[in-house]
Amino acid sequence: MTTVAVMQPYFFPYAGYFRLFAAADLFVVYDCVQFPRRGFVHRNRLPDRSGRLDWLTLPLRKCRRDTVIENLAFPADARSELARRMCRFPGLDRLDLPEFEELRLALFAVEGRVVDYLDDLLGIAGGFLGMSTPRIRSSALGLPADLRGADRILEICRLTGARRYVNAPGGRGLYDHDEFRRRGVELRFLPAWNGPDDSMLHRLLTEPHNLLARDLTAM
Question: What are the C-alpha distances in Å from 196 to residues 13, 84, 142, 186, 202?
Fold first, then answer.
């Protein structure tokens, strides 16, 4: 039975996000929805020089409030601006180590479309964790613009041939098991995440990757 997970692309999300990679046969990068300005698509929190969590935010080109994630873009000076913002986080100095060269190059490849950048980073992070789950973009599926909520997710399941949809535990209030069952799709939620909410960027740089991967697959 093919299992699909659907989630907005986040900037080095917390470890619990990557449990969806472990639980699914296919991960759909949900980029055809409105960009949530207060969310984690373009930012995350890392320890600053005092040890307190502070936001590292990607520089974005100005856009309308109703812009969808697919259409976000970087400004011309994004690389230098990101480097300036990263200076506040001493843990990022480890990016200069040889084992993190791929990660460092990808992190500074801030040009063009933001979704391409985020998708690449998710794939690289998954690689460090031993997760090679295939990814596609929801924007490539030609979803009807009038579909909302569960109907949009169910259409993604139909188009990808998925018979099971797995979601993060926070989605329990959004979807109904009976509705999915009527459409021939099993609805499953991951158990609550009890681990730390630190950005995966910080954890990849400071923790053994095999232990991180073990925690994510022990569900």
Answer: 11, 27, 36, 29, 11
**SS (HEC) of 96-158:** HCHHHHHHHHHHCCCCCEHHHHHHHHHHHHHHHCCCCCCEEEHHHCCCCCCCCHHHHHHHHHH
Question: What distance in Å separates the CA atoms of residue 109 and residue 89, rounded to the nearest whole number?
Answer: 19
Q: Which pTM value belongs to this model?
A: 0.94
Written as tens digits, the pLDDT of the chain (219 aa) is 799 999 999 999 999 999 999 999 999 999 999 999 889 999 999 999 999 999 999 999 999 989 999 999 999 999 999 999 999 999 999 999 999 999 999 999 999 999 999 999 999 999 999 999 999 999 999 999 899 999 999 999 999 999 999 999 988 888 999 999 999 999 999 999 988 889 999 999 999 999 899 888 765
Euclidean distance between CA atoms 128 and 169, whole angstroms: 24
Residue owning tokens 């954890």? 203
Secondary structure E strands in the chain: 3-7, 26-29, 43-47, 53-57, 135-137, 164-167, 186-189
- Tally Cβ neighbours within 10 Å of residue 10: 19
Tokens matching residue 106 = 């990808």
DSSP state at residue 33: S
Q: Which of 122, 123, 161, 158 is nearest to 143 (CA)?
A: 158
